[in-house]
Amino acid sequence: MSALTLEGLSKRFGSHSAVDGVDLSVAEGEFVSLLGPSGCGKTTTLQMIAGFVEPSAGRILLGGTDLAGVSPSRRGLGIVFQSYALFPHMTVAENVAFGLEMRRVGRSERDRRVRETLALVGLSGFEHRFPRRMSGGQQQRVALARALVIEPSVLLLDEPLSNLDAKLREEMQIELRQIQRRLGTTTVLVTHDQGEAMALSDRVVVMNAGRVEQIAPPHEAYERPATAFVASFLGKTNLLRGMVERRAEGSVFTVGGSDVATVEAPPGPCVAVVRPERIALTAPEEGLRGTVAARVFQGSHWMLHIDTQAGPVLVIRQNTGGAVPGEGEAVGLVWAEADMALRSEVAA
After folding, report:
1. H or E segment at 148?
2. Dihedral, CA of residue 12, residue 17, residue 23 and residue 27, to nearest 10
């Protein structure tokens, strides 16, 4: 049985539909991210799960039990907010213990669970410190400990790492995933950060304008996006209009008047979704012909902006120390069928 199930979940504010018919089943111990741009409905969905916003339609089932009419405090959910929402007048231990006190957990049991949870998040010895004397990363750990100490059936994370700098955010992503795996807590994360969602999640739920565009493991959504929106939102991508032509030796995908890859697809106009790192550079007379318009060094890789007959194409080439074509040089672009997703132009 699923730990959390959403059935046709919707929320309307007047004539505006913030969330429109979301269906989702989250397995026990799974880490799922609701991912999308601002205004896509992901935070509203999380708030409905938490009980802070009442759905306009649909059901929320927790372990098979309908949560309709159940107050937020009685849902047994752990929540970490973007702002951490720590009590400034309480010590770390008092902040973490607050939920246990509300549940009337005995003093000795409460102290034990607070001590063990602080050790879990790497804050042993910080029990008597106040939040104002802690860094952003330490405050984030306190907020996580406060959510975990009640042993929630589901942990809800609302952009918990967005206030941290880039380096600390990456470190906390690793720690958060390790903690989640160790405890096996079912977790739902809301984020607009594609890298964060793909690094942490077992599955991503890509949302746009209140609707779900795709639910899939991160690598699958990245490699085989279900829609043009998913392709463009999950990292950098190239959308190239071309044609599948039937030849005596088989079908060929052509773009910009050039044969690029052999394919197994019905003939006709189509759009290829190709990630920049999957495009190989070759001799100018081969594949899709182009000219390097600009190149940008990124340390671990080069970003090449290439003008072609099919329009601008972005290519990412790993920095192996070898020569990289300069601006103004002619190049050819090729890629394998396995490295692109083809869809009919009508569907695209």
Report:
1. helix 136-148
2. -70
Total Cβ atoms within 10 A of residue 306: 26
Query: Reduced to 3 states, what is the DSSP secondary structure of residue 223?
Result: helix
Structure-derived torsion over alpha carbons of residues 320, 321, 323, 327, reported in degrees to the nearest 10: 90
Give the integer Cα–Cα distance in Å for 42 and 45: 5
- pLDDT tens digit string along 39-60? 999 999 999 999 999 999 999 9
Asked whether residue 313 falls in the same domain as residue 208, the answer is no
pLDDT of the residue at 1:
63
Which pair of tokens denotes residue 19? 């969330």
Do 340 and 321 meet the contact criterion of CB atoms below 8 Å apart?
no
Number of domains, the chain: 2
56: left (phi over 0), alpha (psi -120 to 50) or beta: alpha
Domain boundary among 225, 255, 275: 225
**98-117, pLDDT tens digit by residue?**
988 888 889 899 999 999 99
CATH number for 176: 3.40.50.300
Are the C-beta atoms of residues 293 and 314 closer than 8 Å to each other?
no
Q: How many residues can be counted in the chain?
A: 348
CATH of the domain at 296: 2.40.50.140
* Structural tokens at position 20: 């429109």
Q: What are 207's strand-pairing partners?
A: 212
Angle at 95 between CA 91 and CA 99, to 5 degrees: 155
Q: Which residue numbers in the chain have pLDDT < 50?
A: 346-348
